[in-house]
Amino acid sequence: MPIKDQIRNLAKKLVEEHPDAATLRALVRPRKPAAFRFRDDGIVPNNPRFPVLLYRGAVNLKSRRFPPEVIIDTLFDTNGWGRSWRDTVYDFVHYHSQIHEVMGVARGTARVECGGIKGRILRVKAGDVLVLPAGTGHRLIESSRDFGVVGAYPQDGTYDECTDMRERLDAVTRIANVRKPKSDPVLGRGGPLLTSWRTARSRS
C-alpha cells in the first residue's frame, strides 16, 4: 500500500490498546504452512527461489478485548514485519519487486489469485496468513462484503508496485536482490518460513 496508507495506520495504532506478549502467544496457533511455487509466466516474474506460504487458521481472532485487525497488526509488528496497512486487496494483478509482503485476513472470506493469471486461486478466511515473496503476482478475485486484511513488510526492502510489463526485465533483477527476512511474520525467529525459504532452490 502507498506510504500515506501506512502513515494513516500508524496514527491509528498509536491510540489503540495492544495485546501483551503472553496474550499474543496464546492467540497464535502453530501451523505448518502450505507452500506454492509459481514460474515466471512472461508477464509476472514471481519468485525463482521462495514459495508463497499460506498459514491456515494461524491466528485466533475470537478475543472479546481486541479487534482482529489489532491482533494481526501487533503479531506482525512483534515479529519484525512493520509499515502495516489495513484494507482489502487490489483487484488488478500487481507485485512488489523490492520487498516481501505478508497479509493476514482479519475479517471475512475471499478468493485471491497468486502467481498471475497462470497461477492459482487460493481461498482465504479470517485467521489465515499469506506470505508473498517479492515478485509474486496477486489480485483479489472476489470476497465477502466484510473482507479485510492487515498487510505488512519486513524491515529490509523498499515498497514498490509493479503493474506494467515494460518494468519486467528490471524487476527481475530487483527481485533477485531481495534478501530473506530475519523473522517469520507469524511465528518469529524460529518459524517455518526461515527453513522453507532457506532450502528453496531455483527452478529450472
UniProtKB/TrEMBL annotation:
InterPro entries, per the entry: RmlC-like_jellyroll, RmlC_Cupin_sf, UCP019307_cupin, YjiB-like
Taxonomic superkingdom: Bacteria
Region spans: Disordered: 183-204
UniProt protein name: Uncharacterized protein YjlB
Species, as recorded: Bradyrhizobium ottawaense
